[in-house]
Design goal:
This protein is of the alpha/beta class and 259 residues long. 34% of the residues lie in helices and 16% in strands. It has a domain of 181 residues: Isochorismatase-like (Rossmann fold), CATH 3.40.50. The radius of gyration is 34 Å and the shape is globular. 30% of the residues are buried.
Length: 259
């Protein structure tokens, strides 16, 4: 083995230490010094959005879902939601309630004439002194011309939807009902909740849009008023996206009946 002089070893060690120090000193900037700019990120490519060239479509359309082309009375029920006097001449009078009631009466006559089952859903407050829909109050009464027959279903609820804490799902399932035609009030509340719950429970839902009505509401941030026509249109559009087909009363009545 060759012998390296001690002086040479010390010199080499010093050069190594200096190199390490030089690398370390230049690897991190001094305290307070600005960091060197990092490499720029690649530009984010925006996803295509629906615009004028591509008209908006509903999720139901994208999935290829569509409304019924015929009515099977034994498997269909007309659900009349909260067609009550509170919305006609009570504290919650709706601007279009009378027009909606007229069309709901047409649907009722059609259902009875074709053998489609009929469900009357009515709101009733749990407390006797409630300001709206109190038990036994005029506002809680069904509208004139909507008198249930002995073989028709009557559901009394205290929540928004017809299925909420009621036996409606069990009754419909026992009767083999698959398709629900929904009308009534209010579009953005009880009609909306009933249709959404119906879809989740496995029913097909059709809303008679012109047989529903709603009211104007304060803006969500106290910023003006959402008028009833705007809310009606938005509520039906939201339901049509995924939960129900929207049809006019005359379109429903015109569907062929297959027994």
């Amino acid at each position: 083995m060759s012998h390296v002089p001690r002086s040479v070893g010390r010199a080499a060690g010093g050069r190594l230490l200096a190199a390490v120090c030089l690398f370390a000193c230049h690897s991190s900037p001094p305290t307070g010094a600005a960091m060197p700019p990092s490499a720029p990120h690649p530009p984010v490519t925006s996803h295509p959005v629906e615009g004028d060239a591509t008209p908006p479509s509903t999720l139901r359309q994208r999935y290829g879902l569509h409304g019924p082309t015929a009515i099977a009375p034994a498997r269909t029920a007309l659900v009349l939601v909260d067609v009550q006097r509170e919305f006609l001449d009570g504290q919650l009078r709706l601007p279009d309630s009378w027009a909606a009631v007229d069309r709901a009466q047409q649907l009722l006559a059609w259902a009875r004439g074709t053998g489609v089952g009929v469900v009357f859903v009515r709101q009733q407050a749990a407390a006797a002194g409630a300001p709206l829909f109190a038990p036994g109050s005029t506002g809680a009464e069904l509208a004139a011309g909507f008198d249930p027959r002995p073989d028709e279903i009557v559901i009394t609820k205290s929540a928004a939807g017809a299925f909420s804490r009621t036996a409606l799902h069990q009754i419909l399932a026992e009767r083999g009902i698959e398709l629900l035609i929904i009308a009534g009030m209010m579009t953005h509340l009880a009609v909306d909740t009933t249709a959404r719950d119906a879809t989740v429970l496995g029913y097909r839902a059709v809303i008679a849009g012109d047989a529903t009505a709603t009211r104007s509401l304060p803006g969500p941030h106290g910023d003006g008023i959402v008028d009833h026509a705007t809310l009606q249109r938005a509520a039906l559009a939201a339901l049509a996206d995924r939960f129900a087909d929207i049809a006019a009363t005359e379109e429903i009545i015109a569907l062929p009946v297959r027994r």
